Amino acid sequence: MKKLENKTAIVTGGSRGIGANICTCLAAAGAKVVVNYARNQEAAEKVVSQIVADGGQAIAVAGDVASAADVKKLFDVAEEKFGQVDILVNNAGVVHYKTMEVTTDEEFDRVMKVNVYGTFYGMREAASRLADGGRVINLSSSAVRMMLPTYGPYCATKGAVEQMTRSFAKEMGSRGITVNAVSPGPTETEMFLGNSESEKIERMRNLAALGRLGKVEDMGPVIVFLASEDAGWITGQVIPVNGGTA
């Protein structure tokens, strides 16, 4: 029997990058997966097609995690299609690399709404709708510990995610629900590479003890572990997955 057989998972921001790998890894472990996307339906359907071709079950569901109503809809659709939700992965996020001096109110609001409010909305919905013994896994960032210039607003959002993770773990423990965060280091995603100049990419590569950037394939297996019974005694933790970057 696969580790996550008969489990249902929602993955926000599951159409590309780390999120897509999380979806395929969860499905390979037996979970039925709700692949959330904000705009790129084609990419989300591609992830679903890959899962189905490999013998799994998945659906793509549109929704902006910055909207509480859209997050509620994710749970509604998941329950209608697959039954009670067992696993929530709050992966959706946006980056912001600017000094605080030139960051506009609108830019700050956007990164806060997606990264902090989106994670909060997911956890709030999970509090009443996740199955007993379920799993909540939030995505943070090793940038929180690196104190890099131009990362201030972004790190503020991920610091908030880590603190909410710890508090929510205490709130959900009586139902056997574990709540953890995974903290990737610099990773070869379209979002990171597309928003970073070559000098910065090389500098980040050299910071890792293992001498490379992370790959999306490095993340999914860790998520599967935290979602499984094997991780039943791990909660309220932030797990760095960064090759020794920070």
Question: What can you see in these coordinates?
Answer:
Keywords: Oxidoreductase. This protein is an alpha/beta fold and 246 residues long. It has a single domain (8-241), classed as 3-Layer(aba) Sandwich (Rossmann fold). 46% of the residues lie in helices and 17% in strands. The chain has 9 helices and 7 strands. The protein has helices spanning 17-28, 41-53, 68-82, 105-129, 143-146, 152-172, 190-194, 198-207, 220-227; strands at 8-11, 32-37, 58-62, 85-90, 130-139, 178-184, 238-241. The chain has a 7-stranded parallel sheet with strand order 3-2-1-4-5-6-7, with helices on both faces. β4, α4 and β5 (130-139) form a beta-alpha-beta unit. α1 (17-28) packs across α9 (220-227). The longest helix has 25 residues, at 105-129. It is globular, with a radius of gyration of 17 Å. The protein starts with 7 loop residues before the first strand and ends in a 5-residue tail after the last strand.
**Strands, total number:** 7
* Strand order in space, largest sheet: 3-2-1-4-5-6-7
H/E series: EHEHEHEHEHHEHHHE
Main β sheet profile: 7 strands, parallel
Mean pLDDT: 95
InterPro entries: KR_dom, NAD(P)-bd_dom_sf, Sc_DH/Rdtase_CS, SDR_fam
Organism: Blastopirellula marina
Pfam family, one: adh_short_C2
Keywords: Oxidoreductase
Write a short abstract of this structure:
With 246 residues, the chain is of the alpha/beta class.
What tags apply to this protein structure?
seven-stranded parallel beta sheet, 246 residues, 9 helices, Rossmann fold, alpha/beta
